[in-house]
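I have a small job for you when you get a moment. Would you make up a two-line entry for one protein for me to read? No commentary is needed, just the two lines. Write everything out right here, beneath this request.
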Amino acid sequence: MSTSVLYYKPKSKNDAAVIDKLTNLADRHPTYGFWKMYDMIRLDELPWNHKRVHRIYVDMGLNIRRKKKRRLPIPVKEPLTWPIDANIMWSIDFMQDSLVCSTKFRTFNVIDDFNREALNITIDTSLSAKRITRELDKIIDWRGKPERIRMDNGPEFTSHIFVEWAKKRGIKLLYIQPGKPTQNSFIERFNRSFRQEILGAFLFDALSQARALTEEWINIYNRQRPHDSLNGLTPERFLLKYGKLPGFTRLQQDMIINRNFVKLA
């Protein structure tokens, strides 16, 4: 008999039962992947093999897209050293607090590791990578640029914008190892003082109030408060006694040191 007369006719596939089962599982367990759902189907002793279930699973668009963790370059562990002069190493970090109305705000803290001087504290509800580069540019305009900046692996510090900014400025970025805040101890100690004496000591009704108190505190911190780590000297006096800023005369150095405090006098 000719094959054009007699040939195999495939059976039509009815996947309604499989679709109903997968829909029910997806509604109850939206985070389950294919194999977890298939194992539950096998526990119910249903006669469908994994190839059929997977085909229907994909057709229904139930695939879970896994978020891949962005791999950061492994930072080189460097010992925490005390720089021999100003503008060799700066440390930067973020802190967070909230107003009385529960509005959260962040602070961007910058210090010079040599004399523990508070170079700036920026306060706002949002501090992006572009914003922190602008704030650092403002400091560099009157202070000069640092050779290195030490920081953690926050998204603002690892962003393309911040990395490219540092390359153009010729500044080396040093990232501490994740979960090792002791590798950035200078600014961690600074953050503790700022938390105890300002953020944890006052209730803020507005950002302007937090900024005003912070500016006043920076003035006291740099000019009036002695530091045990600086042999009982203030950051200002320590810089005048032991530091030097290359390329500047002594008068210009004094003007740079007092730059933050003229507007507060």
Notes: The longest strand covers residues 89-98.
